[in-house]
């Protein structure tokens, strides 16, 4: 039995179920074609009872046009009209079957993921049992490993033998090279030693020649001019006259005899301005050696209690013990000269080593200084006197040379001095005393009288 809704739907005019937007604009005269379409496709007949939430449909109005009539007919037939799209709006909501299908698909995917994760967890917690051990394969693997180890051992032994051979070869070559180098070095060393010895010999020869040259007394220009003038006067020849050779020989003989007399007088042929017989005087010295307390033999050798500082300014005539002993290996002697001079050299005398009992008391390292002390009876004009003490020279007394050794003044521009001080800082070995046999001071006096004292 059909329901009243179905009957109402059958009695109501049929409308098209085409959801396209052109269906609303079709005229009402197409109702016949719509009825024919309904016979060809299944038609869902819905209950036409009003739903509480659905508002009452608006009254029909013929002025609404064919679109409204078709919409009303469709509403009366109970066919759901698709929502009309707004211009520029979003698309309509999906159908329920699509939503249900999407939810079902997502649930199926989630279930598959859960099953996969569960399977992994199961496999992780329950690992598969290890496969059975293949003893034959393991034995074959062990055999191959043993073969590889044996091969490596043989290669290592061969490599070690080769390395030992290389080491022996290198050691042999290095030893041969070391021997050749040692022989070459020894040969060069011997050659260098020979050259050094020859150089030392040449150095000694040069030193002796230099010392001899230094000891030579060269004539100053003024002395040579004076000598030449004397030669001319003695020969009695003018500037343009020829000089007779016999006259030159006679003059040379006379000069030689004069020099012989001079050297015989004092031994070195130079004036001594510190000699005691001409007015030189020892005005100060370091502590004297007390020979009387050392025994009678030493006292007799050194002159006993009669030793005087003036012995250092008197000829000793080469006799051992004719000296003035000073305490220790260092000391000084201050000498006042007979008058003011411009010093040229200092002569220090000791006893000859051929007759000396002990050469260790001879002074060694010495220093000489000089200055001028103003006196009332001396006046030198045109010359500068040294008011302050000035270092004149330093020297070393050498035992391998003559016992009388002269040392030139090395200080430049030395003024007039009348005081000389000899300081010795060491001797040749004796720690008890140092013997001074004689000190001589050489120089020349200013040519004109008058003195000018320098304060610098």
Tell me the Rg in angstroms: 72 Å
Helix content: 40-55%
Largest sheet: 7 strands, antiparallel
Q: Rough shape?
A: elongated
Quaternary state of this entry equals single chain
What is the H/E order? HHHHHHHEHEEEEEEEEEE
Kindly provide the name of the CATH class of one domain: Mainly Beta
Question: Could you say what the CATH architecture of one domain is?
Answer: Sandwich
Distance between the termini: 163 Å
Count the strands? 11
Q: What is the third-level CATH name, the topology of one domain?
A: Jelly Rolls
- The whole-number mean of residue pLDDT values reads 75
Overall SS class = alpha+beta
Q: What is the assigned CATH homologous superfamily of one domain?
A: Galactose-binding domain-like
Contiguous low-pLDDT stretches (5 residues minimum) are 1-31, 43-47, 59-74, 294-305, 449-456
How many helix segments? 8
Question: Your description of this structure?
Answer:
By secondary structure, this protein is of the alpha+beta class. Among the domains are: 4-77, no CATH class; 221-255, no CATH class; 271-454, Galactose-binding domain-like (Jelly Rolls, Sandwich). The strands form 3 sheets. Strands 1, 3, 4, 6, 7, 8 and 10 form a 7-stranded antiparallel β-sheet that branches. Strands 2-9 form a two-stranded antiparallel sheet. The chain has helices at residues 4-11, 31-40, 66-77, 96-125, 135-215, 221-235, 245-266, 296-301, and strands spanning 281-285, 324-327, 331-349, 365-371, 384-386, 390-396, 404-408, 417-424, 433-436, 438-444, 452-454. It is built from 8 helices and 11 strands. The longest helix is centred in the middle third of the chain and has 81 residues, at 135-215. Residues 182-209 form a coiled coil. Residues 1-95 are annotated as: Disordered. It holds the Pfam family Sad1_UNC.
């Amino acid at each position: 039995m059909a329901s009243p809704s179905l009957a109402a739907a059958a009695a109501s005019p049929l409308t098209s179920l085409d959801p396209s937007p052109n269906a609303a604009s079709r005229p009402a005269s197409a109702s016949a074609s719509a009825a024919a379409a309904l016979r060809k496709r299944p038609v869902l007949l819905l209950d036409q009872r009003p739903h509480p939430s659905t508002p009452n449909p608006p009254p029909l109005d013929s002025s609404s046009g064919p679109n409204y009539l078709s919409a009303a007919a469709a509403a009366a037939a109970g066919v759901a009209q698709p929502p009309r799209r707004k211009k520029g709006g979003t698309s309509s909501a999906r159908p329920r079957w699509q939503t249900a299908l999407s939810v079902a698909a997502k649930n199926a995917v989630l279930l598959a993921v859960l099953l996969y994760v569960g399977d992994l967890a199961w496999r992780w917690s329950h690992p598969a049992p290890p496969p059975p051990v293949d003893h034959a394969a393991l034995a074959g693997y062990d055999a191959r490993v043993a073969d590889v180890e044996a091969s490596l051992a043989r290669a290592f032994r061969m490599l070690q033998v080769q390395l030992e051979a290389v080491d022996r070869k290198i050691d042999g070559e290095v030893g041969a090279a070391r021997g050749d180098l040692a022989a070459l070095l020894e040969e060069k060393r011997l050659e260098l030693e020979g050259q050094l010895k020859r150089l030392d010999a040449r150095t000694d020869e040069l030193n002796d020649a230099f010392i001899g040259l230094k000891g030579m007394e060269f004539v100053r220009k003024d002395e040579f001019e004076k000598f030449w003038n004397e030669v001319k006067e003695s020969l009695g020849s003018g500037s343009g006259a020829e000089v007779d050779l016999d006259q030159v020989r006679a003059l040379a003989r006379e000069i030689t005899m004069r020099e012989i007399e001079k050297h015989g007088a004092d031994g070195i042929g130079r004036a001594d301005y510190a000699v005691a017989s001409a007015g030189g005087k020892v005005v100060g010295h370091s502590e004297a050696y007390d020979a009387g307390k050392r025994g009678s033999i030493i006292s007799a050798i050194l002159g006993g209690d009669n030793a005087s500082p003036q012995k250092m300014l008197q000829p000793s005539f080469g006799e051992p013990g004719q000296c003035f002993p000073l305490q220790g290996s260092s000391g000084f002697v201050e000498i006042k000269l007979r008058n003011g001079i411009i010093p040229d050299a200092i002569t220090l005398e000791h006893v000859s080593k051929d007759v000396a009992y002990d050469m260790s008391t001879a002074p060694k390292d010495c220093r000489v200084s000089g200055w001028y002390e103003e006196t009332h009876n001396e006046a030198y004009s045109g010359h500068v006197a040294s008011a302050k003490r000035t270092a004149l020279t330093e020297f070393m007394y050498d035992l391998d040379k003559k016992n009388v050794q002269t040392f030139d003044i090395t200080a430049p521009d030395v003024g007039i001095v009348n005081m000389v001080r000899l300081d010795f800082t060491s001797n040749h070995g004796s720690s008890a005393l140092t013997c001074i046999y004689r000190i001589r001071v050489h120089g020349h006096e200013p040519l004109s009288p008058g003195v000018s004292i320098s304060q610098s």
